[in-house]
Automatic annotation (TrEMBL):
Name under which the protein is recorded: Sec-independent protein translocase protein TatA
Membrane-spanning segments: 6-24
Listed Gene3D superfamilies: 1.20.5.3310
Subcellular location(s) of the protein: Cell membrane
Subunit structure and binding partners: Forms a complex with TatC.
Length: 59
């Protein structure tokens, strides 16, 4: 039950009508930047110990 070529072309046409051909590259660029920032944020995030884990280590 995937989308066929005709359905994808219709959806693409509707998107172009709604946003205009000049806004679409800007939207895709900002979406890509957001995804890359999310990925780097997930990689750089240090693992924080919860209070329960700290208490278990002290005991």
């Amino acid at each position: 039950m995937g989308l066929g070529v005709n359905e994808l072309l219709i959806v693409l046409g509707i998107v172009i009508l709604l946003f205009g051909s000049t806004k679409i590259p800007q939207l895709m660029r900002s979406m890509g930047q957001g995804i890359s920032e999310f990925k780097t944020g997930m990689k750089d995030k240090p693992v924080e110990d919860t209070d329960e884990e700290e208490e278990a280590k002290k005991a």
